[in-house]
Structures are given as structure tokens and as C-alpha cells.
Amino acid sequence: MSRNNEKNIKKHNDKLHKAQDKAKQAQMLRKEKLKQIVKKFNDTKSSE
């Protein structure tokens, strides 16, 4: 019996893709927060 059967490969790939999606989501969230911070900073800077 081989360890690299279809079931194990699928399970591994699903786990890998889930982790990659989670990392991608976190990266997008950080970018959005940074955009908001920069926008807020620029608004306060221009109002002074």
C-alpha cells in the first residue's frame, strides 16, 4: 500500500490550499487596513 494514494494527496492539497487562502485573505486585510490608515493620515494632514 502506497502512502501517496489519491485520498492522501487530495487531503494534503485541500489543507495546503486552505492555508494559502487564509494567508492571502490576511494579506488583503492588511492592505485594506493600510489604505484606511493612509487615507485617514492624508485627511488629517490636509486639514491642518
UniProtKB/TrEMBL annotation:
Residues 1-33 are annotated as: Disordered. It comes from the Bacteria. Residues 16-33 have a biased composition (Basic and acidic residues). This is Uncharacterized protein. It comes from Flavobacterium granuli.
